[in-house]
Amino acid sequence: MANKWWKSTRALVQLELGEAVPITWEHFKKIFLDHFFPQTLQESRARQFMDLTQGSMTVAQYATTFMELSRFAIYLIPDEEKKAEKFERGLDRRIRERVRTLRIRSFTELVTRATIAEEDLQENIEYNNQRKRQQQQQPQAVSHKDKRPHIMNRQGQPPAGQTYPTCATCGKRHLGRCMFGQNVCFKCGKPNHLARDCPVKKPGEPGRNGGQKTHATARVYALTPIDAEASNDVVTGTLSLFSRHASILFDYGATHSFISNHYAHLAEKIPEPLEPSMSVATPSGDHIICDSVLIGCPIEIQGRILPADLIVFDMSGFDVILGMDWLSQNHACVDCFNKRNAQMGRSLVFSLYEKLPLLV
Question: Could you tell me which residues belong to the region Disordered (predicted)?
Fold first, then answer.
């Protein structure tokens, strides 16, 4: 088609230029593009590139489309860093959250890491779907060894279908006189102790710790990248764990160290029962019961293996949270101002801005 067009067009072009003037490559290219790829179409492709996001595409499909359309908007990505930034902004949110803490400046490396994150997410989806199918096949089965955390609300809930009125004093929903700010027990109304320590039991309810399973307590201050960005008390990064790059949250406000359900499933260890089980306070105010732990997980830093006992925890924003138990054991001092770990004697020393396998 193009050859036929050129045969019919060449004579006209030569006539315009004159017989003595040769048709240069630049002249031919301009004529060719004007005919087969006009300026309006080029501008349309540039707009498509500006609006491009991953959407329902895989990372590989997104990268291919990105490269094809980028030719028409080179001015938007003048260097490798801008190219990587544009690609990262268009990634699926779940994948973007996993790679953004890596601070990757190479487009090729970013595509590779995003592909790995995509595979991990797909494994997580398949694992959860498998568990749902197993639960549906045994709807009546109740196992006391179920390792999934159970979430307990901070306040007792009203009977199904009913809603308590909102209190004008404390802003919460409850019945009766508000005890907020009166230094009295919310359960019995007497002073000098809290409801959780109340010695008075309700009808049909055993006394404190009487016949009830007790839990150790713990807390975390951040569970997602959004929580981490909003806090000046944490540092995020990436370390090697079980021969994989794990997204890590260093949180000196967390009393213990944790590993996500998904990453624990990929681990080379079998979880052990946590006795007693642990009630973990989250940033939202909920309490999550955890009852299993991975002992001696090999956290690798600068060629050193620093074991961590990681409690299996229901979270998705990070693979691992390293809390005060691990930080104090390894004499690590988190420099939250500069977002790096500072030296202290023979303490752990590494920076979030060095190359892998260190934090980046």
Answer: 129-163
